[in-house]
């Protein structure tokens, strides 16, 4: 029988399918933000209306903040607020207050209490109070696109107007859950009631948030216009711009042309290989930050020769990691320490890495009885431009140790279906681009990608290791009550993962920013990868 943690995590894998199938093939440049010169900014003479014009690749699949599970997070993160914001790596504090001004948990991690700030209002004028928080979370648990993140929640009560108490079925990190970019927005009760009767209620661009911006207008597939909310409670994070005028521009080259011609001030998606040139042209500097996106190559561990750890280790030693980062990510990346991306819990630089060592790779292949070489197949998503660039480097490197690699570019859905059909007839190596749903890559990446189960969702190495499973399961039960102990267990699991090598841990893609003087856009936060924040993210009063 599965433990509560296992049941929750299996719910994560089941419910996570739509997100991965719909947007997993987005290239590494999805984390890229490049900005030009300020148009009408408030520090440029205090015009009557300050306007920031933006070219953004983010499509709107829904305006419903509960059902949202895709790239419309770029807009929703400026319109809605969660209970807590997760700070980027390196901040003095792990979290920053949002709708909740303080929070605490019981020693056993089963009861979480959030104190709701007074004075905040939704854009429709309704007060943000404990009942609104309760209704939002109950709606999210019931039908959110990421409803599975609330699996530990047994019940929630509004003890008074400013106190929300969550009772859990088992210990879980509800601070991380409450700070999720999906399934955790606090929504006006009036809108929740209206949308309960009409699932299309939000689709015209109606908003019911409490954030720094409102949705002024929406033209499907073409434009989103945000307007500053004058009654926003957080003066330290008040909007710099009165209007943010966003042209939906999926093509990166078009966005580059709009930026360099001065048609827009900011572009959220540009050809990664052109970043340095654009920065030079604009007289700006390139800045990098962590992102939650990373690349893994699964080995099919169910059949020879990849059922032998020595063969998997040999191939891991053959990979040219630095070249892959340079070619696949235009140099904007860091070699992975296992499948947890840098900056996301429970990332650790104590987890070892492979480095390219062709002599060691050949020796291990010989020890495994394959001195005469091997022939293997590798598949990757043809939509992913980074994979298309770096996969040939793996093929060339393997050839140097006597391994012939048959490379197949497939549409991701085809790649996915072939891999899920039957491991015995599936690919030998499956390259994937992955990120956690929220800022807990223990319950997501470590579980979803490599934990065994009778019907694995994304464990496309098909690996089954009881020791690894036990470590990940135990860590999951500790994360809500003793995060340091959970970190220790997760690190043990990751070291075992690297040693047994059911996959090749390639690189963590970086977010790239080119920020000119005078433009006010918040720094990239790896915990909200699809959101460009148009108001500063400042400590709450």
From TrEMBL:
<dbReference type="InterPro" id="IPR030678">
    <property type="entry name" value="Peptide/Ni-bd"/>
</dbReference>
<dbReference type="InterPro" id="IPR039424">
    <property type="entry name" value="SBP_5"/>
</dbReference>
<dbReference type="InterPro" id="IPR000914">
    <property type="entry name" value="SBP_5_dom"/>
</dbReference>
<feature type="domain" description="Solute-binding protein family 5">
    <location>
        <begin position="95"/>
        <end position="454"/>
    </location>
</feature>
<protein>
    <submittedName>
        <fullName>Glutathione ABC transporter substrate-binding protein</fullName>
    </submittedName>
</protein>
<dbReference type="GO" id="GO:0043190">
    <property type="term" value="C:ATP-binding cassette (ABC) transporter complex"/>
</dbReference>
<dbReference type="GO" id="GO:0042597">
    <property type="term" value="C:periplasmic space"/>
</dbReference>
<dbReference type="GO" id="GO:1904680">
    <property type="term" value="F:peptide transmembrane transporter activity"/>
</dbReference>
<dbReference type="Pfam" id="PF00496">
    <property type="entry name" value="SBP_bac_5"/>
</dbReference>
<dbReference type="GO" id="GO:0015833">
    <property type="term" value="P:peptide transport"/>
</dbReference>
């Amino acid at each position: 029988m599965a433990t509560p943690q296992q049941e929750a995590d299996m719910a994560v894998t089941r419910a996570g399918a739509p997100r991965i199938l719909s947007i997993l093939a987005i290239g590494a440049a999805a984390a890229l933000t490049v900005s030009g010169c300020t148009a009408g900014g408030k520090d440029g003479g205090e015009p009557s209306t300050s306007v920031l014009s933006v070219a953004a690749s983010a499509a709107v699949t829904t305006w419903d903040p509960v059902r949202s599970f895709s790239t419309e997070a770029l807009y929703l993160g400026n319109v809605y607020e969660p209970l807590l914001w997760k700070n980027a790596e390196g901040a003095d504090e792990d979290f920053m207050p949002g709708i909740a001004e303080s929070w605490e948990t019981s020693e056993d991690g089963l009861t979480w209490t959030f104190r709701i700030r007074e004075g905040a209002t939704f854009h429709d004028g309704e007060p943000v109070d404990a009942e609104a928080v309760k209704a939002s979370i109950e709606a999210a648990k019931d039908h959110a696109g990421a409803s599975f993140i609330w699996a530990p929640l047994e019940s929630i009560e509004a003890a008074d107007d400013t106190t929300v108490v969550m009772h859990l079925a088992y210990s879980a990190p509800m601070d991380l859950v409450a700070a999720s970019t999906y399934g955790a927005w606090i929504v006006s009760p009036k809108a929740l009631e209206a949308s309960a009767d009409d699932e299309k209620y939000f689709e015209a661009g109606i908003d019911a948030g409490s954030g720094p911006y409102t949705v002024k207008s929406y033209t499907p597939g073409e434009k989103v216009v945000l307007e500053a909310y004058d009654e926003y409670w957080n003066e330290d994070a008040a909007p710099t711009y009165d209007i943010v005028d966003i042209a939906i521009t999926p093509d990166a080259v078009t966005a580059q042309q709009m930026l360099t011609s001065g048609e827009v001030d900011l572009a959220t998606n540009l050809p990664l290989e052109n970043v340095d040139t654009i920065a030079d042209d604009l007289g700006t500097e390139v800045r990098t930050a962590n992102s939650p996106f990373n690349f893994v190559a699964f080995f099919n561990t169910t059949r020879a020769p990849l059922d032998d750890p020595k063969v998997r280790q040999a191939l891991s030693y053959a990979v040219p990691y630095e070249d892959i980062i340079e070619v696949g990510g235009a140099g904007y990346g860091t070699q992975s320490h296992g499948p947890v991306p840098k900056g996301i819990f429970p990332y650790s630089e104590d987890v070892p890495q492979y480095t390219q060592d062709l002599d060691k790779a050949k020796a291990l292949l010989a020890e495994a009885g394959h001195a005469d070489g091997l022939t293997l197949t590798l598949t990757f998503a043809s939509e992913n431009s980074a994979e298309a660039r770096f996969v040939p480097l793996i093929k060339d490197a393997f050839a140097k140790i006597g391994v012939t690699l048959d490379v197949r570019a497939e549409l991701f859905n085809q790649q996915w279906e072939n891999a899920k059909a039957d491991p015995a007839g599936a690919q030998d190596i499956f390259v994937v681009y992955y990120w956690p749903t929220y800022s807990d890559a223990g319950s997501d990446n470590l579980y979803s990608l490599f934990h065994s189960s009778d019907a694995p969702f994304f464990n496309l190495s098909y690996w089954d290791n009881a020791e690894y499973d036990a470590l990940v399961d135990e860590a999951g039960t500790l994360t809500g009550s003793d995060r340091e102990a959970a970190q220790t267990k997760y690190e043990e699991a990751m070291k075992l993962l690297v040693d047994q090598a059911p996959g090749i841990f390639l690189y963590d893609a970086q977010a790239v920013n080119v920020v000119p003087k005078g433009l006010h856009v918040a720094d990239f936060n790896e915990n909200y990868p699809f959101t460009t924040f148009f108001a500063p993210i400042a400590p709450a009063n």
